[in-house]
Automatic annotation (TrEMBL):
It comes from the Eukaryota. It comes from Gossypium stocksii. InterPro entries: Retrotransposon-Effector_Assoc. This is Reverse transcriptase domain-containing protein.
Amino acid sequence: MSRMGFDQKWIDAIMKCISTVSYSVVVNGNIGEIFYPTRGLRQGDPLSPFLFLICGEGLSSLMRSATRDGLLKGVKFIDERPIKY
């Protein structure tokens, strides 16, 4: 994100939202011990679509750079098979 021009304070805030989550499970009305996820985002996390877009933009930028530097070349594909109905 820093390479894409995001301010470090913004990056720190996003990372804090992702890395400081904790869970506990209620079983038969009793709250269990707190545990911490080791990776990934929470299901339904509102940040998820935005982080996906940021990562996609980063990958797209890397691919454009690699193409410009001659490290990545496109492939053309023509499907000449007859269409089956």
